[in-house]
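Whiteboard transcription, Tuesday session. T.W. wrote the structure tokens on the left side:
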């Protein structure tokens, strides 16, 4: 049980680090007139074309007419903005977890899983490139760790992309089922522990903020020691050897590059399958498996997101027609607005409520994909279920998901606009 607790803490800390990167990247775009102008040029053609030619646009996206988005019109562009807005609100307000809802949200809106994954990866890559090519706080990154990690990441991304495309070509429903299963296991695990933490904190009457002390205490705990397994890996002398953490340990720590490459391969594989950048796995793997300090880990994690998302979105999805660029543009626009509103709202909302919404949002995504599975398994003839029941469960999951996320968005917006005078005063 302690192993699962450590894994959860690692996943959560990585999600917090990614949220900080996401916020700072978004602010970099919003504070630059040049970048806003570029964003405007990206959005304007989409709006004009969607209004003028929506009726005449081809029904086939991704090569499978029966399973592609049924049609494209201005409404779906607005929906993409709302999805990005909600993801931004969650990332900004909760400090983690916003990226986990994008793929389930897109799939619930009628976009096939492979398109949702490719589009989400491209959205992450586009934001990273627009915000900054290299993050300004990567001073402690180990070049050796980064290179070894990215070699593995590129291999893993390629493998994950090939599997996703192969499943889609075999049967688009099989592809959707596979992606949904991955999300069910991942969100179920995170949601269970997040809910447990929230109930535990609520019972104690605590008001810990997610953004600050908790993340720092987790990082500090992870920095202080090296697990026995990590110690054995570092004791191996398989060339080439990477030296890192010289600022924290006299002479630094040493680790065979092959172990870092394997971790990069796993992260890249999951990123290509789920479309979330893969960063949430880097922290627990580096800290608990490889014995890398959390300070170096966070820098490497943020650094790899840019290249992993870029390689995955372009080499595995874009060139095969599995990116919905209009949706990516809408999500980028919405998330830039949402993340700023969400971050400001934390100044007037108690931490206990933020913790509760974090757990609720993750569980809503879990229920959404879980309820979609029976119908898909029925279509694949793996289980026997009537089409009416399968469709009803999927619809129920979609309604629950969007009601929860919508309520959260309305609640955060009401807190923001209701306290706008206070926020302007610099609370």
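and on the right, the sequence the group agreed on:
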């Amino acid at each position: 049980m302690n192993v699962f607790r450590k894994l959860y803490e690692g996943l959560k800390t990585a999600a917090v680090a990614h949220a900080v990167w996401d916020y700072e990247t978004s602010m970099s775009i919003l504070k630059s007139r040049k970048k806003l102008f570029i964003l405007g040029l990206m959005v304007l053609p989409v709006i004009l074309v969607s209004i003028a030619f929506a009726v005449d646009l081809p029904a086939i996206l991704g090569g499978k007419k029966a399973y592609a988005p049924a049609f494209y019109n201005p409404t779906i562009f607005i929906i993409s903005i709302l999805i990005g807005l909600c993801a931004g609100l969650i990332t900004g307000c909760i400090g983690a977890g916003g990226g986990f809802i994008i793929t389930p949200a897109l799939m619930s809106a009628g976009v096939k899983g492979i398109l949702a994954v490719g589009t989400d990866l491209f959205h992450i890559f586009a934001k990273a490139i627009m915000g900054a090519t290299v993050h300004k706080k990567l001073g402690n990154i180990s070049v050796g760790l980064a290179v070894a990690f990215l070699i593995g990441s590129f291999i893993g991304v390629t493998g994950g992309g090939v599997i996703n495309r192969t499943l889609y070509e075999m049967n688009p429903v099989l592809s959707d089922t596979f992606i949904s299963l991955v999300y069910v296991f991942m969100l179920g695990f995170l949601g269970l522990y997040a809910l447990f933490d929230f109930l535990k904190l609520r019972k104690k009457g605590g008001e810990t903020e997610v953004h600050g002390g908790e993340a720092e205490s987790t990082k500090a705990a992870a920095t202080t020691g090296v697990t026995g397994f990590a110690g054995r890996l570092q004791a191996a002398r398989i060339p080439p050897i990477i030296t890192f953490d010289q600022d924290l340990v006299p002479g630094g720590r040493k680790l065979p590059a092959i172990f870092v490459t394997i971790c990069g391969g796993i992260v890249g594989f999951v990123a290509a399958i789920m479309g979330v950048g893969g960063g949430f796995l880097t922290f627990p793997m580096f800290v608990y498996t490889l014995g890398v300090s959390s300070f170096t880990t966070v820098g490497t994690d943020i650094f790899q997101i840019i290249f992993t998302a870029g390689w995955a979105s372009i080499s595995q999805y874009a060139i095969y027609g599995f990116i919905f660029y209009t949706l990516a543009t809408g999500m980028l626009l919405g998330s830039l607005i949402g993340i700023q509103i969400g971050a400001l709202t934390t100044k007037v909302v108690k931490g206990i409520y933020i913790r509760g919404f974090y757990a609720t949002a993750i569980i809503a995504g879990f229920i959404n994909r879980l309820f979609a599975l029976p119908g898909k398994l029925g279509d694949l003839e793996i289980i026997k279920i009537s089409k009416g029941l399968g469709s009803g469960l999927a619809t129920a999951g979609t309604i629950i998901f969007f009601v929860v996320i919508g309520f959260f968005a309305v609640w955060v917006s009401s807190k923001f606009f209701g306290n706008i005078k206070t926020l302007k005063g610099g609370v």
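Someone added at the bottom: The first strand starts at residue 241 and ends at 244.
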